[in-house]
Amino acid sequence: MPRYLALAQQLLQQINQGQLRPGQPLPSLRQFAEQQQASKNTAIAVYQWLEQQGWIEARPRQGYFVRARSRLQQPQPAPLSPQLPSLGELGLQIVRTAMQPHWVPLGSAHPCCHFDSLDSWQRQLARSARQHKPAHSHYQVPPGHPGLREQIRLRLHKRGIWLDADDILLTNGCQEAFTLALQTLTRPGDIVAVESPCFYGVLQLLEVLQLQVLEIPARSPDGIDLAALASALKQWPVKALLLHPSYNNPQGYAMPDSHRHALISLTEPYRLPIIEDEVTAELGYQGQMPLALKSLAPERVLLCSSFSKTLDPDLRLGWIAAGPWHDALLHRKFVSSMASPGLQQQALAAWLQGRGYDRHLRQVRQQYGDNWHQLAQALQGLPQGCQLNAPAGGYLCWLQLPPSVDSLQLWQRADQAGISLTPGALFGQQPQLRHSVRLNFAHWHRDIRLRKAMPKLIELIEQCQH
Ligand SMILES: Cc1ncc(COP(=O)(O)O)c(C=O)c1O
Known about the structure:
Blueprint: H1 3-16, H2 29-35, H3 40-52, E1 56-59, E2 63-66, H4 69-73, H5 90-98, E3 104-105, H6 119-131, H7 146-157, E4 168-171, H8 173-185, E5 191-196, H9 200-208, E6 212-219, E7 223-224, H10 226-235, E8 238-243, H11 257-267, E9 274-277, H12 293-296, E10 301-306, E11 318-321, H13 326-337, H14 342-352, H15 356-378, E12 387-388, E13 396-400, H16 407-416, E14 419-420, E15 422-423, E16 436-440, H17 448-465
Helix pairs in contact: 1-3, 2-3, 6-14, 7-14, 8-9, 16-17
Bound molecules: pyridoxal-5'-phosphate.
């Protein structure tokens, strides 16, 4: 954990244990740095972090003070204004913890890759590897393997998305698709609107690209708040909107069709480019494929997806259908990463020609649906004030905690108990996100530790309440 975060957590503990009381002044930055034998910059980072999280406040010419309890207990939504994301190292830190094999895996958004239905895929991969002749090896330059692009086209066609295989650009996962899209649509300092809470990979990317983020509230079951978006668009020169409307990470909702139509109409007068994240679109528990925004506004929507959540994130196989920006993205992809691994592309193209992938999706959807029900049952004893949002698909759910529970503190305590989870603060800067966590239940059916960890999780939430 970075030093500043460890020091901030110490102060947070003192606040929670009543050693530092509401209204009490904190040492000046210089005193704090001396006491902790830290640099002044570290002291600044500690106070800034606590201030951002709403625990302390700066008073002009007086210094820093612990915030009044009442303001902590009722986190107010921050006014909508663009901000530079500042996740820094926190994201990587939390993801690293979540990936440790000995931790109970509620944290990272890694899917389960152990399904019988993947046997035929493993065999295809081995066959393709055997047939791969080094003498014929070459860069699989963009737009990527024609056979795989054709298979993706056919799948989109069934959903009313009319594209040519040449409209599809293969990428290293969906994350590279976002990167190429944002680099093409924006310049540093521009404003990008996202739903809040928002997948933190996007926020980290905006931070690195020096873009400002405008967090528009989103709630289950509809998704992004259209009234808030409408007023934001009137007020700010937003350059792009990035959304994950189908089995959203972290909230699990599927935006209703009527809401999708309204969103497209609302953004039409601005000709606003929309980056649509569809990584989980095939994971709805009812088997229904959502209406893609791309099918409603093909010229304005950059459709991004990958096989990371349905098959294996390790493949790093993603794609983007960017409409009029296709050529610009293709060039950018070529100069930045040259190509994507051809062997995986060839193997997947061959496998998608059969029925194996659809058979696999049926098994996965059913298993994740069962897992969700079992998790919800195991968490029936959650303390009052908690709310577990029911997802419509995927393998993630969002647990809202009582306002007195700080999710970073819960994350830290859970970490000490060998349980990984993802604190809400990672999904945006709105203060109310501090009181939520995201849970991954993809591994529930295979990992008995998850079931056993539920009473402990409930106990930790109760402890944080006090
Ligand atoms: C909602 C969402 N979109 C995109 C990504 C990135 O996907 P990929 O692994 O294909 O780069 C993730 C990864 O966790 C995700 O959760």
